[in-house]
Design a protein that fits this description.
Among the domains are: 74 residues, no CATH class; 31 residues. The strands form two sheets. Strands 1-2-3 form a three-stranded antiparallel β-sheet, covered by helices on one side. It has a two-stranded antiparallel ribbon with strand order 4-5. The radius of gyration is 46 Å and the shape is rod-shaped. It has 184 residues and is mainly α. InterPro entries: Collectrin (IPR042944), Collectrin_dom (IPR031588). One of its GO terms (cellular component) is extracellular exosome. It is a single-pass type I membrane protein.
Length: 184
């Protein structure tokens, strides 16, 4: 950060502005802000004097309150933040980090648990519906068999094609249309 005479002037002007805004009767001028021990790392301390009272220093508590009240304007003037522009003995204006009322892990745990419960409920309901459907089909088959209308053959738990036993059934694969070929 290039710190030169213009930056010093801007800082003094911002402190004078803060003092004027804090105390409406204050007539703080830029010349009333004195910078001391300025280093290359832009580190210094400053004093605000009151020229109306024969160059006496303004109490530190008043200066702190004025800077705390206008700190965002000072930070904005230098395009800095409370992390980069630090005033010793003046607490930061940043709000503390927001902590959720419930821990994040608890929220994730709740979501995963809800998904698992929803999956289990879905599987149970689907099983009940499938069992009802199977029971309904078996009762319909039994009713048809009792009436003697259709004979249903069940092999390996799978209902096969209904056969009309009175008329018979011819398997077309083994029926030969003509006897041209020699039998083996």
């Amino acid at each position: 950060y290039a710190w030169d005479a213009n930056e010093e002037y801007l800082f003094k002007a911002m402190v004078a502005f803060a003092m004027r805004r804090y105390s409406s009767k204050s007539t703080t001028q830029i010349s009333d802000v004195l910078l001391c021990n300025v280093t290359d790392r832009v580190s210094f301390w400053f004093v605000v004097t009151d020229s109306s009272q024969n160059m006496t220093a303004v109490p530190g508590s008043v200066v702190e309150a004025a800077i705390r009240m206008n700190r965002n304007r000072i930070n904005s003037a230098f395009l800095l933040s409370d992390k980069t522009l630090q005033f010793l003995k003046i607490t930061s204006t940043l709000s503390p980090p927001v902590e959720p009322s419930t821990p994040v892990w608890l929220i994730v745990f709740g979501v995963v648990l809800c998904l698992i419960v929803a999956g289990i409920v879905f599987l149970v309901v689907a099983g009940i519906q499938q069992r009802k459907k199977k029971n309904k089909e078996s009762t319909e088959r039994e009713n048809l068999e009792e009436k003697g209308e259709v004979t249903v053959t069940v092999e390996n738990g799978i209902p096969c094609e209904a056969l009309d036993l009175k008329a018979g059934h011819i398997n077309g694969v083994f029926a030969a249309d003509d006897e041209r070929f020699t039998s083996l």
